[in-house]
Amino acid sequence: MAEERRPKQCTVVLPTESMKAMAESIGVGQLQEESCAALSEEVSYRIKEIAQDALKFMHHGKRRKLTTSDIDHALKLKNVEPLYGFQSQEFIPFRFASGGGRELHFYEEKEVDLSDIINTPLPRVPLDVSLKAHWLSIEGVQPAIPENPPPAPKEQQKAESTEPLKVVKPGQEEEGSIQKGQGAISAEAKGKKEGLMRMKPRSTHELSVEQQLYYKEITEACVGSCEAKRAEALQSIATDPGLYQMLPRFSTFISEGVRVNVVQNNLALLIYLMRMVKALMDNPTLYLEKYLHELIPAVVTCIVSKQLCLRPDVDNHWALRDFAARLMAQSCKTFSTTTNNIQSRITKTFTKSWLDEKTQWTTRYGCIAGLSELGPDVIKTLILPRLTVEGARIKAVSEGPVVSNIDKIGADHVQSLLLKHCASVIAKTRPLPDNMEQYRADYGYLGPTLCSHVVKARAQAALQAQQVNRTTLTITQPRPTLTVSQSGIGGSGGSRSPSIIKVPSSLTLMSTRPGTPTQPSPPATKYIVMATSAGASSTQQVLDGSLVITLSSSSGSSVTSTVASATSTLQPLVKLESRGAGGLGGSRPLQKYIVVSLPTSASSSLESKSGMLPPSSSSTSPISLEAGMKMDHTGYVPNGTLLPI
Amino acid sequence: MAAVQDGQLNMEVEKDIKTEITNDGSGNINANSSSPGSTSSGGKSKSPAGSGEDQQTLLAVLQFLKRNKLTESVDILRREAGLSADADDSPVSDSAGAGSGGVPNVSADGGDANSLLSRVSIATPSIETSSGFGCGSGGRACRLQCGEDQPDVNVVLSAYSQQGDPVLYPLYYNGLKKFIESVLDCHRAELSQVFYPLFVHMYLELVYNNHENEAKQFFEKFSGDQECYYEEDLRILSSMSKKEHMKGNETMLDFRTSKFVLRISRDSYQLLKRHLQERQNNQIWNIIQEHLYIDIFDGMPRSKSQIDAMSGSLAGEGKRDANKAKVFYGLLKEPEIEVPLDDEDEEAENEEGKPKKKKPKKDSMGSKSKKQDPNAPQQTRIPLPELKDSDKLDKIMNMKEATKKIRLSPDNLPSICFYSFLNAYQGLTAVDFTDDSSLIAGGFADSTVRVWSVTPKKLRRVKSAADLSNIDKESDDVLERIMDEKTASESKILYGHSGPVYGISFSPDRNYLLSSSEDGTVRLWSLQTFTCLVGYKGHNYPVWDTQFSPYGYYFISGGHDRVARLWATDHYQPLRMFAGHLADITCTLFHPNSNYVATGSADRTIRLWDVLTGNCVRILTGHKGPIHSLAFSPNGKFMASGATDGRVLLWDVGHGLMVGELKGHSDTIYALKFSRDGEILASGSMDNTVKLWDTLKAFDDVELDDFTAATGHIHLPENSQELLLGTYMTKSTPVIHLHFTRRNLLLAAGAYNP
């Protein structure tokens, strides 16, 4: 007899209420309770019968999901007219309604205007069936190609790194498959039986020749001079499912690279390495936990290092710090567990060096950036209380005797960073009203500016809430003129020359910050459209200003805005990105259009400011960072090879 | 044995009726399966007005049989239906006749073991009802009552009409349960087999006699005790809670019309019998007598695992007698090819300027195959089509390829090339490769059949008749010239079906393609013109699978109507109809020597049919779910089958024995294939994996002594893990078809299912 009791197979019957509802729907008003009961039993039985037949059709259709057509075929089998028109790809959208003490599930039939159907453009013809061949296995070894599932699924990698003891269970089916999958190691493929006793190799992954070649190509491309190749390589790192075995090498490559290049102050290479980290983290098939001991120090170095570039006064190492801080925050979010305590350890490290009096402005900046990326809670508990102290320090530098240019720039950056991060947090937590004096009392030197920022942030949040509809509408319509109209308030349409911005029709438009365009009195903004097509350096065009479009803003007060207030507008308003290139395997050169708004008054500080463009979401950050770096460097890098666009 | 003979006879009748019904197009499965059982009550229920229709059908059948000069069948049918020649024979005399022809009254007879035994094994389908008939006068009254309105079902169900106190049923069952639990361990497993059929029939009796609530309680009380592999059937049973539901329910009819077969050792059987007689437990004894076929063997009682391995089918295990017939599983020798092959080969080699070293080797190969395999059928046992020149060329190609074949072994696994169907939107339902792996065909849910060429050679249509007349027929490249270059493309779509295409098969010569569909037809397509040539009508219900013979010309189809049909491409009516499965035929396959056909069914049995005689020569039980894939080993000796339960079972065709069980898949196995030399079995499943199994080892590990060979009680080694050579995950692509190329490269196909 069966040992475990199965769930009871009792006879489930439809409720009699359903019978009544059905009867009413065909015009039979008063149905006796007894008839209902009899009917419901009969109907339940027939439904079960049909469902059983429908299952047959599902099995023979080699599917796991029962479809409406299966039911139709089952009905046909019983010589019943099928329910025509019940075609549904995914699920049947039954709606639920209750009222008058009754509950109903019904199928909503919408009225469709025929002219609507006629007038709407035809949907795209679905792709025809096609046949594609790939190697599932070569002499018993499954090659790690995108067509095959990743040799070690992410869950397993995670399990391996977090609970190493649980994974290895000899004789398990999964174990066998993994061994076969990883069988690039020939010995492993053969010695399956010894495999049960063998210790798991930790880092001695032997790479096949192909993998070695791939590794070489990828690493060269990642730190090489060709931006197009780099984009492809990063794309590959971010998507390829078969990188599991190369992960130790990549992580060593990155940590060693950072160590060397920090000493040499090679900013560009550091940026490339950080982008690699980003790509690795983006790869859905990789689980980096095991390699954090190499990656985290590298990333932290890029955040807090005293010097990252040869000329700290002009080079934009700030952007790198921002970017690395975001990476750090991301890895904290992903990998922090109660056992490794990454987040608290990182926070401690940042706080400690921040509190140190002797810390330089660069490191200070990095610490604050790193902390503030960890989220509003961290800002609230760790940064806000120290605003006064920090404000005093900034004041000492900016208003006191001129010490050095570097310090001044550093202090400026720290100030804007603090303002940027704190304003939004304060706007959310601090109750109204925003009193300038009150702020000064609470936050010291930074108080008044902070106050105006908070006001702006509040207004912005309010507007954002209002304008959700408008912005989403504009996003969905990829008309080139919209790029412009979105940033200025209406009425300025006549003065623009949309034709200057040539946007290919295939572009999709993404607004990164829907709320930013409308501010109480926006300064006149400049738009720089940079067309970066792989290899061909169109940077010169940006430089000679042929593509710098000036648009007059609607409001009259346009010019005078201080550097401090301008910082808030330093955000990429619109980012255009050609979608096609990435999806189709990168056969075409990647094209990027980046529109950046800049305050006119701050044009002199274009280089330094633009570097701070904060990308709004992590997914777009590499591109934005790139934009920042490009603009930054094209100003002075003479040959342009170091940072080609 | 008498039972077997009668069974065959009965089957013949059934077959005839089915021909009739399918021909006039008013097919009704229920009528089919019920007619053979309509012994005495068919005659009884003749007088009421409601049965007029039934009688008319019978008369029509008789007329048809007469017309076709099937006098023997006429006689049988008449005897069975109780119709005399002038059709107004009195029903009383009929039933009396049936009674006298049947067995003596069961309950009255308390004879010794031997007489009981003989009765059990003699009881045949044709007299089942009459034995039920004799069990009580109360039953007769009830039958007469119900006969008024539903004569058809009534005939079938009448056996359930015996009146027992419904309240006692659980007591009876419990009593038996207690007894079986108290017997010695060695008997317990065997006797436990009785539970399930007993449970089913008691439940059905309760339902039939309108004891709805008792039935429900009975079900709830004891359904949990049944083996888990009967769950599907229990679900169907549970939905059947009213007498009206029994009408037309196919599963119910299966239980009724076929006896549940149990294999029990003599000792265990004696125990059971003694117990039932002591307790005067007639209710249970009657059920055992009427609905169970107890196949008694001498020897050790079987263990639980042995029983579990074999049970699970809808109607119990196959009778031992059913697997006794000799099966010529050897391969046919191919003498005709030899001579031209050598000639052609020589020419070819001479042309290529190769040394003639190979020739002696070839000869030796030829002489080896000339030896007559003792297990092979006679060359002319069934007429096979003559080889055409193109076939010979193909054979030569095959030979050449075979010399380049990779020897597979556990250390030398095949490479797998996976063909993914993209954008198929869940619609891919069947796939087939040609033997030379040059073409792939896919059947789709949108009723289309698509053919792809996977070699650089594109698919071309033959030119139109007008253009063909302009061609110089004497030219050497006439075969090239008749093709229309303009139509060259990598794939072609064949339109014609009006329902999902569930089965697809290339002819061995690559000129034809077969497809079977939900619309009840099998279509033959030409791969020269890419048009439909014939639509074979006969199955009026979905045709789940179709398969060409390895020699072409013949093909087999099977579907929802439970009948497998053997066709020849040039006949629009089937040559053979194989009836006997109790549920849908889900897959069909020809034996490599083309003399046998294997069918897998949703009744969880595999049957092997003799093409020559039309007899069922093997009934293989052991699967716990509908069987969806079959494969013969290249030497014809073994067979593998895969089912929805995710297990692959290996069978020795000659002995009719299960020789292995391969566990590992977690979902339905839709594809099975042996490598060209039979060393490796590849299985593809819905769980997105391809698995490779070491079949040489699997077949070696089985020790066959005389006893197991005689009784079929085999100890299966638990060695699935050792036999598993590799598992290859696909990326969310269920594996629907597998094929070994002539060089032992494994091709797999499935639709990517994002």
Tell me, briefly, the overall form of chain A.
Answer: extended
Which overall shape of chain B is indicated by the principal axes computed on the Cα atoms?
globular
Approximately how much beta-strand content do the residues of chain B carry?
Answer: 15-25%
Number of helices of chain B: 28
User: How would a crystallographer describe the biggest sheet of chain A?
Assistant: 5 strands, antiparallel
Pfam families (chain B): TFIID_NTD2, WD40
Subcellular location (chain B): Nucleus
Biased composition (Basic and acidic residues) (chain B): 12-21, 362-373
Biased composition (Low complexity) (chain B): 30-52
Descriptive overview:
The complex is a heterodimer of chains A (about 650) and B (about 750). Chain A is α+β, with helices and mostly antiparallel strands and about 650 residues long. Helices cover about 50% and strands about 10% of the residues of chain A. Chain A contains 28 helices and eight strands. In chain A, strands 4-7-8-5-6 form a five-stranded antiparallel β-sheet. In chain A, strands 1-2 form a two-stranded antiparallel ribbon. The longest helix of chain A is centred in the last third of the chain and has 30 residues, at about 445-475. The radius of gyration of chain A is 31 Å and the shape is extended. Chain A starts with 15 loop residues before the first helix and ends in an 11-residue tail after the last helix. The model of chain A is unreliable at about 1-10, about 165-205 and about 470-645 (pLDDT under 50). Chain B is α+β, with helices and mostly antiparallel strands and about 750 residues long. Helices cover about 35% and strands about 25% of the residues of chain B. Chain B is built from 28 helices and 31 strands. Chain B has a four-stranded antiparallel β-sheet, with no helix packed on it. A four-stranded antiparallel β-sheet of chain B has the order 10-11-12-13, with no helix packed on it. The longest helix of chain B has 23 residues, at about 1-25. Chain B is globular, with a radius of gyration of 28 Å. The chains are: A alpha+beta (about 650), B alpha+beta (about 750). Chains A and B meet through helix 2, helix 3, strand 3 and helix 7 of A and helix 14, helix 15, strand 3, strand 5 and strand 29 of B. Strand 3 of chain A pairs antiparallel with strand 3 (about 415-420) of chain B, so a sheet runs across the interface.
